[in-house]
Write the structure tokens for this entry.
Amino acid sequence: MGKINVQDKDIVVPGEALAEGMDYLPSGGAFRDKENIYASRVGIVSINGRVIKLVPLNLRYMPRRGDRVIGQVSDVGPNAWYVEIGFYKEAAITLAEGSSEYIPKGADLTQYYAPGDYIIASVSSVSKNNSINLSLKGPGLRKLSEGRILTVNPAKVPRIIGKEASMISLIKNMTDCRVMVGQNGLIWVSGMDPEKERIAVEAIEIIDKRAHISGLTDEIKNFLEKGLGGKSGVLKKD
Amino acid sequence: MKDIVGTHVVSLLDKDIRLDGRKLDEFRKITVEYGVSSKSAEGSARVKIGDTEVVAGIKFSLGTPYPDEPAKGTIVVNVELLPLSSPDFETGPPNIQSIEYARAIVDRGLRESDALDMKKLCIKKGEKMWMIMIDVYSVNDAGNLADAIGLAALAALKDAKYPKYDEKKGLVLYDERTKKGLELKQIPIPITIVKIKDKFLVDPASDEEKAMEARLTVTTVEDGRICAIQKGGELPLSTEDVEKMVQLSIEKGKELRKLLK
Amino acid sequence: MAYSKRISGRKFDELREIKAEVGVIPRADGSARFQIGKTIALAAVYGPKALFPKFLQKSDTGTLRCYYNMMSFSGSGERVRPGPSRRSKEISYITQNALLPVLDLKEYPSAVVEIYVELLQTDAGTRCAGITAAAMALADAGFPMRDLVSAISVGFVEGKLLVDIDNEEEHYEKGNTDIPIAMMPRTGEITLLQMDGFASKEELKEALKAAKAACMQINKAQIEALKARYKK
């Protein structure tokens, strides 16, 4: 016996009752308290059979192994770099993980990455007390070059990337910009045309505000077409 | 040393382009709201410049006139950069930045321009004066707090009405407000100009503030005369730079003054 | 003359007008503004962040730190000197305790979550408005919460039970009792309970019942504000 109090795609807030009875299973940001299931965050309900999942609309970033993150080098030690990734502990990159190329011991580490540099790296380990290690060994991991850095809430990252990277590819192709999205909510945007680059940034900001809307891909497509006018990235041969 | 964002700000400026698409001499959207704390403050205002938000309040206090000015009242300015408004601000007594805003921008601008007739603030010569307490708080820092703070203080002064004063008891009756306001003889507007390479920007947003080499906050009155100047930033300015920045401040000051009319 | 009608004309169980909004401070991780009558509270949440000095860090969980402050011009009467007072420190402490029961900070060992509450204008009920705003700000920031926390002041003036006491009633000459209460709306559990004045056991029971109903109304406003950010 049980009862669902909400519908698929409803927006709920902490403490709201999602379902009553033991028939249902909580998932994501939904939790069980005695007989009932409640929301622990502001989020969207996703009902799949007997599973009631809550997808949060806002999160505090928790690094997970394998996450690609963008961070800023804050300090350089004798054998490691220290990076701010928007978490309460700085992440560390050891000598061995600093690059796909071999870095000899005793080398001047600031020649590779200096304080202030932005990098895109992969989370290689998270210890029990939340000490984070990053690695720059891997395809596409590197120091970032000139461009803009945006910050969005990490909960919006999946929407900004899109199913099979569809959303981010749409933005990249139409604005001719390179974009790298970190799971920690930091985003790097770099384009040859400043106008198009700004439109790419605005498109991302719209997704940040409206990640809860369905049909967002069309909305963004329209926004990009309007903003770019005759400046679309698609070459038109008359 | 600039990071990739600062470097980008600079290369875009080479083509006279700003991150948010504004012109070099363009302000973000400014809104001024009066009486936001009207029950408790004798005068109050909220100013938003883009996402930067600041609130200011006026309280009328009683004091004893200073011995060297027995027939005048005074203003006391306090600015607090609240940790509420930015991860960069900490709890504790006002830091050097907030003291600079309070003294060099608000206080100096009001005093040197003679915006308030301090003689009118005297209640009894040598014995009692009005102290106009001006408190300004940052609510959200998205760059250019200096100008927002200056505007908010002015707007709150414009909004202010004297509380009732019981002469016999020598007490202020805060519960009763008169219709008498503070007459502002001048409206000294501070405008902050930031220099990056050889470009001068008005109303710097956060990323532009980080990339700035030097800044000049110039406070001017209606007829274009300057009543306060404060230079900030680590690099020097040439005299030509200063002349250009002052001229820009006078022009933008005239524009912003219309918002307070 | 018995207190037969409220000075403001409100019914005995009627709350003042409420305005609630979240996301009002973009720089913060979460923020909210809560206004009840003429009392206006702003709250901003930053965290989790590194906690210094190190000896204050807790190895198995995060720490919650609240800072309550009244803007100098926000009190009725004289200007309030800036800086922490004993009263603001007390309110900071009870705000922390009112919110801790709904938070699980074990995910952030040794970190701190900071909540800043600023009062823009005051007309009694300030600590409750602060707690209500802080709860919204925490939810806005995306901290997992067992429930929201809703707070209200109830009390007695000349033996009459009143809900949402305002400043005039608080200072009513013939004496009054002020009871600020914070609750978890889902379960009715109390996370803040203070009392100033005199009341019998039965009167207290009555007060708690009335407070529960009032907190549900506060909670409704919090829920609407949090959802309003995500309108279609």
Summary: Chain A touches chain B through 15 residues (CB under 8 Å). Helices of chain A lie at 157-161, 166-175, 194-210, 216-228.
